[in-house]
Design goal:
Number of domains: 3
Shape: globular
Helix content: 10-25%
CATH topology of the largest domain: Beta-galactosidase, Chain A, domain 5
Number of helices: 9
Number of strands: 43
Distance between the termini: 59 Å
Largest sheet: 12 strands, mixed
CATH class of the largest domain: Mainly Beta
Strand content: 35-45%
């Protein structure tokens, strides 16, 4: 029976007091258990069973969950998932004898272009193999803190990969994190993985999910296994006593692509894989992606690739458990935060060129019905994004356009942004010009600006037309800097150090335009993918630290860099957003200089959405060591915070463990700076157990 909270500490103390591991057929080491905590650990060596029992809510009188792990060879690993609705209630079985399924797909990385920092690769066009990940338990170790417990099982293998299987449960939530941890000695490997849960026949009653176009769906138990597009990347396995949902980390799971279509990231049904026959649900990574550049996930030799999947279970039926999972991403929406507005950048929706082409074909200037409120605008509004900055005209012809065709495009872009903006949503013009500076870069002006990307011999830099409009022609870095100075614009590196920005902004770090305050810095995106990392986007975070150690005083804002966007797209998995310190949304007609001012001052933080780090500031008490403080809010339990600082040459880090946090919390955070002399800047980053995170901009240190 699942014990009430009052009995837990005694049980843990009793087990933890054993000086040596208890050894059955599979040795289990229990010496890492916390002497006092909320998770009860029971070991039955005769049956090779380890049971974890924990509170499934924040109430002491609330429900409790339990997970029994069967370490016996050739037995389903998850022997039982159970639920006790109240301390006096009898526990009810949700599911029994579930087999975790992991299939590793191994391909070959082309390392010739830029090593592991790669996007322009087509792994899907070269031979690859699918390998079932098999577990033959050799030994286990159970460790715990006050609010978490981990079961680590050795004996995992797939092809040349080998490692261990880990299970983690969290007090206060019926959440299980399952991770296959694998490493290979071989070089140039790129990987994908499918994962899920499979039940023996005769126990599952059906499957449920939410289709992006059709809404809640259900399927009978004998449904042949197949791919599903599902909202929130989650599907549920239904039993008479309740449901078990399976879902991935919302952002870390998806490898970067140009298009944010929902390519079917879930599977469900009977006999998905021969290595684990039965009725199951799970997650999958489509190997062909959008059939453009499909880089998969880096697996450098010797790195431990963590392949996570989450389970959440309970007695609810239908899509109720899916709704509970959706809360971890706030239903794929960015939460409103008083004093802040959400800003997202770098979208190649090409609405202007689409509208121009359709007007030409129709022979009139009316806006087609389906473009009066385009799908991308509806998708952004539904995601809680207040301000969207486009990156239009992303094609090789734009820099060559003569003045009149170029101005026609710009005028329509400006008019459509004005038409599609209102008091609650601001759509702003922007481009990725990619000429004159080196690498790819983004332009951003505080009002509509007319500029042509070429300057023939004898052409003035600026001229005024009969309507009094300034028309700019740019043909060099000096022209672009002069334009930014005159129009108070900003520019920054798009996808710095990767794609067509390999070597940038490093290669022009000493130029006048880079040193100018009109050069903001760079844009952050989780690219490339590497599951051995416990954070996202280290490529740009490292650049942020480097730039500030150069003395350049630069910022990094989040970018998304995808093409077509529709309400049914799998947009959230690719999304990040910038929370700008703004009390109100500017009106398009008045210009949006306050947006650029906030970016330039660094008064914003970047987040994948699940973690908010508001009001990050340097705190210096009387005689006390300086600290960084922030107000944190989160959904999934946090993993750690990191305070990063530099002295103008070297970057230092201080990691602060946050494993005492539960799901759905808030906290006033304060942490010491790294212990190093001569620090001149510092920033804060906070990450959760799924790799989601938020980070501040560097703060100058006196």
């Amino acid at each position: 029976m699942i014990a009430p909270r009052a009995a837990l500490r005694t049980s843990v103390l009793l087990i933890a007091s054993l000086a040596a591991p208890i050894r059955g057929a599979v040795p289990v080491d229990l010496t890492g258990l916390a002497p006092a905590g909320e998770i009860r650990v029971l070991h039955d060596p005769d049956k090779d069973l380890v049971t974890l029992e924990w509170p499934a809510s924040e109430s002491a009188a609330g429900p409790r969950a339990s997970l029994t792990v069967n370490l016996a060879k050739d037995k389903p690993l998850l022997s039982r998932l159970a639920w006790q609705s109240a301390p006096a209630a009898a526990p009810a079985i949700i599911a029994e004898n579930l087999a975790p399924l992991t299939v590793l797909t191994v391909g070959h990385r082309d390392l010739a272009r830029n090593g592991w920092t790669v996007f322009f690769d087509k792994v899907h066009t070269r031979p690859s193999q699918r390998h079932p990940v098999r577990l033959a338990p050799a030994a286990a170790k159970v460790a715990s803190t006050a609010t978490r417990a981990h079961v680590v099982i050795t004996g995992l293998s797939a092809e040349t990969f080998a490692g261990r299987y880990e299970l983690t449960v969290f007090a206060g939530s019926p959440l299980v994190l399952a991770e296959a941890v694998l490493s290979t000695p071989q070089n140039n490997r790129a990987i994908l993985y499918d994962a899920g849960l499979v039940s023996p026949p005769g126990r599952v009653t059906g499957y449920s999910w939410i289709d992006p176009r059709l809404g809640p769906q259900a399927a009978p138990v004998d449904t042949p296994a197949g791919v599903r597009a599902a909202r929130y990347r989650v599907a549920a396995l239904e039993f008479p006593g309740g449901n078990v949902t399976v879902f991935p980390p919302p952002h870390r799971y998806l490898y970067p692509l140009d298009f944010a279509d929902n390519f079917g990231f879930n599977w469900l049904g009977r006999h998905y894989d021969s290595s684990a026959p039965g009725d199951g649900v799970g997650i999958r990574q489509p190997p062909t992606g959008d059939n453009r550049f499909v880089p998969w996930v880096n697996a450098p030799p010797g790195t431990e690739q963590r392949l996570p999947v989450f389970y959440r279970f309970g007695p609810a039926a239908g899509t109720a458990e899916i709704d509970a999972v959706a809360a971890y991403t706030r239903r794929d929406c960015f939460a409103p935060l008083p004093g802040y507005k959400t800003f997202s950048s770098h979208y190649h929706v090409e609405h202007t060129l689409d509208l121009l082409a359709r007007r030409k074909a129709a022979g009139h200037a009316a806006v087609p019905a389906d473009l009066r409120e385009p799908g991308f605008v509806r998708a952004f509004r539904a995601a809680g994004i207040d301000i969207v900055h486009l990156a239009e005209f992303h094609n090789s012809q734009t820099p060559k356009l003569a003045t009149e065709p170029r101005l026609a495009q710009l005028r329509l872009l400006h008019a459509e942004c004005a038409r599609l903006s209102d008091g609650n949503f601001l759509l702003l013009p922007g481009e990725e010009p990619n000429v004159h500076l080196g690498g790819h870069w983004i332009s951003f002006f505080p009002k509509p600006v007319l500029w042509v990307l070429n300057r023939p011999a004898g052409q003035p830099f600026v001229e005024t037309n009969a309507a009094g409009e300034s028309i700019y022609h740019v043909g060099s870095p000096a022209d672009i800097l002069a334009l930014m100075q005159r129009e108070q614009g900003l520019m920054w590196a798009a996808h710095a150090r990767i794609k067509s920005s390999i070597g940038f902004p490093d290669n022009y770090r000493d130029t006048p335009f880079f040193r100018s305050p009109h050069y903001l810095g760079a844009a952050w995106k989780a690219m490339p993918a590497d599951y051995s990392r416990d954070t996202l986007g280290w490529r740009v975070l490292d650049l942020l630290d480097d730039m500030n150690n150069w003395g350049a005083d630069k910022r990094v804002l989040g970018e998304v860099d995808v093409f077509k966007v529709e309400p049914h797209s799998e947009l959230y998995g690719h999304l990040n957003v910038n929370y700008l310190k703004l009390d109100r949304l500017p009106r398009f007609a008045d210009g949006w200089q306050p947006v650029l001012d906030v970016l330039r001052r660094g008064e914003f933080f970047v987040t994948t959405g699940e973690v908010l780090a508001a009001d990050t500031a340097l705190v210096r008490g009387d005689g006390a060591a300086p600290r960084l403080a922030a107000q944190l809010t989160w959904t999934l339990p946090l993993a750690f915070a990191e305070i990063v600082a530099g002295d103008g040459t070297t970057t230092f880090r201080r990691r602060i463990d946050l494993s005492d946090t539960r799901a759905f919390g808030t906290r006033a955070f304060s942490g010491l700076l790294p212990d190093a002399p001569g620090l001149c800047w510092a920033r804060l980053a906070v990450w959760d157990v799924a790799g989601n995170g938020a980070f501040s901009q560097p703060i100058p240190l006196p």
